[in-house]
Amino acid sequence: MANTLRIAVGSIFVGLAVLALKLLAWWMTGSIALLSDALESTVNVATALAALVAIRVAARPADDGHPYGHHKAEFFSAVLEGVMIIVAALLIMREAYAGFRNPPVLEAPFAGMAVNAAAGAVNAVWCWVLITWGRRLKSPALVADGRHLLSDVISSAGVLLGVCLAVLTGWSVLDPVLAGLVGLNILWSGWKVTASSLSGLMDEAVPESTLAEIRAIISDKATGAIEAHDLRTRHAGRVTFIDFHLVVAGQTTVEDAHAICDRIETSLRRSLPDAQITIHVEPDHKAKHSGVLVL
């Protein structure tokens, strides 16, 4: 969790630096497209702050009021980020519409584009850091922040292309047109971030590949049992919740059944370190002859 917090704090400083560069690029050129790029970067700073707060809340241990922990706080942050991305996109499209009606005259365009390109390069590197480490640390907030930055990198490239074409062709209307297209791209990105985060809040099951791995571990390590059924999974941040019913022979002692459960839990946590596992042991007449058969 310390690594997650350090990266979240780093996002705030990177966001502020990139915002300053993009505002400088807009001030130098007067470009609406570059202004749209700067507007999105204000959201980057706000979402980085939201991610930091969510990660700190998610790190709190379980308590009487939240016996399953606070892990879902990161999903709330990711939903907030998605909504803020959508708001930024709408603001950008509004500026693009105003620019389309009254195209601006660009000043010092190439110097401004160079500054904006530097900001885009910083964002590209940090985007890779956020997504890579967010997945490694199983942090939805960091991954959502990284995907948001990825949309920013793409939009920055589009903005630079638009400004360059506007300068080379003399068609100043290209500047607001590209800003509008960037706004549409960001709008789509915001929807994807929001939708994926809502799935976590709705207790969506783990991916099929992870579920297959869980079933294989139970089948391999439940020697002495008969079957496992009613397997259910969900994920909340970096924590995976697993629960199922384990059927054993009626004469199996409590100690032997507990040993089987311990063996399964140890193997599952070796594959999923933050897993929280609940196993309900049942006698053989409760068998459903379905689910996970023990090898």
UniProtKB/TrEMBL annotation:
Residues 11-202 form the Cation efflux protein transmembrane domain. Keywords: Membrane, Transmembrane, Transmembrane helix, Transport. It is a multi-pass membrane protein. InterPro entries: Cation_efflux (IPR002524), Cation_efflux_CTD (IPR027470), Cation_efflux_CTD_sf (IPR036837), Cation_efflux_TM (IPR058533), Cation_efflux_TMD_sf (IPR027469), CDF_Transporter (IPR050291). Residues 207-283 form the Cation efflux protein cytoplasmic domain. Pfam families: Cation_efflux, ZT_dimer. It comes from the Bacteria. The chain crosses the membrane at residues 7-29, 41-59, 75-93, 113-133, 153-171. It is found in: Membrane. PANTHER family: MITOCHONDRIAL METAL TRANSPORTER 1-RELATED. This is Cation diffusion facilitator family transporter. It comes from Paracoccus spongiarum.
